[in-house]
Amino acid sequence: MLRSRGRRAVAAAAALLGLATAVLVAQSSGPTRSPAPRRSLTVATWNMCGVRQWNCADTGSPAVKQRELRRLATRAGARVIFLQEACAGDVEAVRRALGTSWHTAFRPYGEADRVGRVGTVPCAGAGQGSAGIAILAAYPLSSVTRVPSQQPTVGLRRGILCASVAAHRVRLCTAHLSPAGSDRAHPGWEFRDDQLKALVAAVPARRTVYGGDLNVNPPGDGNSASWVWPSAPYDVHQECDGSPDSARSTHVSGHKLDYLFTGLPRVRCTVRDTGASDHLALIMRVGTD
Hints:
Helix content is about 20%, strand content about 30%. The protein is of the alpha+beta class. Helix 3 (about 60-75) crosses helix 4.
């Protein structure tokens, strides 16, 4: 998540320039496989901007965010949803609303202070619980694992969370990476390279879908942080949008920060504006035959 006091002002300026009009539109791209796979799985990733004190107070109420999360599962057809900046209360409320066949895995963020104490980040509002990352799925989740990765010594510790869906024999991992300057004691330290390596090392070569809010632009000549990317995400696996050159924006600032990678056949890739976050949702359908 890009953080600054003026982020809302930037977003407003972008809207006046027509940027939001250009990017906040649901679109589809990517190859349509023929013949269609007999079995498929639709996976979405969405940074909910649910932590109100993180410049998210003007992106919608908890009720609105819960409604849009339900719509990803119902109208958009996502059977697995990766979530970042989610409140535990919102995730649990949606799981209950979707029914007993839905399951969740949740990992709270950690906030490390200068003397080494690590606490959770509470979400504002009664019953909202802690902020964190989550996997919401229409299938039982097994082998749920918190993947170790380098994190700031002082500041917000995000993370990587993985689980398996036996019904499709797929390993799933959602991540929220640390943007530049995340370590308040060492603002020049970079974590995304080590975190991306840990994420890639946690997934198999083929039967996987992984991604989330990676807080970095796609690799390319115009990205000075391209060096943080390992080769596997685009060489061994494929991203929802395909190549870095065809990547679409997923944040109101005009950047692509949200990703879905897979070793399975891509069927469809959609960007969806929920209207309840400064991030768009990214939705990918993959064949699981």
